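Final report, Chapter 2: Outcomes

The project's central promise was a pipeline that accepts a single protein chain and returns its three-dimensional structure in a standardized token representation, suitable for archiving and comparison. That pipeline is now operational. To close this chapter, we reproduce one record exactly as it appears in the project archive, with the input sequence first and the structure output second.
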Amino acid sequence: MLPDRTMRAWTTIAVLVLLVVGCGGSDEQIATGVDLEVDRQSTVATLRLTEEDFASDDCALAEGAIAAPGRRRLLRFDTVVVNRGSADLVLGDPADPAPPFSAADFEFSPCHQHYHFLGFAEYELRDGNDRLVGFGHKQSFCMTDSERVAGDAPHRFDCKFQGITVGWADRYGSELDGQWIDVTDVAPGDYTLVVSVNPRHAIPEAAGGAPNVIRVPVTVP
């Protein structure tokens, strides 16, 4: 049996080793080369107002993208999210995602017939006092390599194995369901469209990388 002094020394060493290993594991999860950026110009260039009719069983209503059925006035726009970092964003198979993600981070969309990553972005319309006035809701997305914006890395990700390759962008066009703010009940005037990507830091990014927010002035006539 070891003397008490020796035993205390070994205990101290063991605790220090555990602390170092624990810190190393934590740093490993936090340290990342992923750096997402919202392409502001794409949003500005595609802003448009439409009036559209929605049935009571429409997917847009079921998914919370409109406030009520019937004729709705929508502010549509593109959202383009670019990975400008030094490492790919890898979510993986929604049924068995890559760490630190879990299956609980995804939901299956019966309307779109694939899995969406939850809480990826938020869309809001705010007035001059920064009060929420538009019908904003949390957006969930299937993250894919939609278009190359830099470098020569090959296409890697789709809805079955999700992520964004370095130098690629995930594009959500203004023609898609949910790519809007419902402004049916918004009074005419000047407002700010706020697009926030990774608002809750659910995706580990490089230091200072999240959240990713753009603010675009808009006028509701």
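Archive annotation: The chain has two domains: 1-31, 33-220.
This record, like all others produced under the grant, will remain available to the consortium after the project formally closes.
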